[in-house]
Amino acid sequence: MATVEVGAEELSVEMKGMDRVWSLHSRLAIPLAHVSGARVDPDLVRTSAREGLKLAGARVGSHLTAGTFRQEGDWVFWDVHHPERSVIIDLHDEAYARLVVEVDDPAATATAVNRAVGAAPA
Fold it and tell me: Is residue 122 domain-resident?
């Protein structure tokens, strides 16, 4: 699980507990200018969690996807145990094309991110 905070100029994602170990990251900081928007799509997350080449991190069946993966030609950061509680944050001009993270309230997180970057709700 992760905590997503939207600041005036930065989006920060902080991994909690053992997810810091599994994902090999404790915190990611992204300039808001590099965030395209956020969306909630648990079906896509459920399907995509089993795809791609793992560079660093862990994938344990359908129970955990955490770390850096190469998917459809892009680098994607994952920290998901439960796809239904995940949010997809789309990025540009960053090492990662997307962040897929589990949060307490995916809809509220996506709304906060989209408001901050002026993106239309997905």
Answer: no
Find, among 109, 34, 114, the residue nearest to 79 by Cα. 109
CA distance 57 to 32: 25
Q: Could you give the residue ranges of the DSSP H alpha helices within the chain?
A: 19-23, 42-48, 106-117
Overall domain count for the chain: 1
**46: domain range?**
2-117
Question: What global pTM score does this model have?
Answer: 0.89
Residue 65 covered by a domain: yes
The neighbour count for residue 19, using CB atoms within 10 Å, is 23
91-118 pLDDT, tens digit each:
999 999 999 999 999 999 999 999 999 8
Contact 11, 89 (CB under 8 A): yes
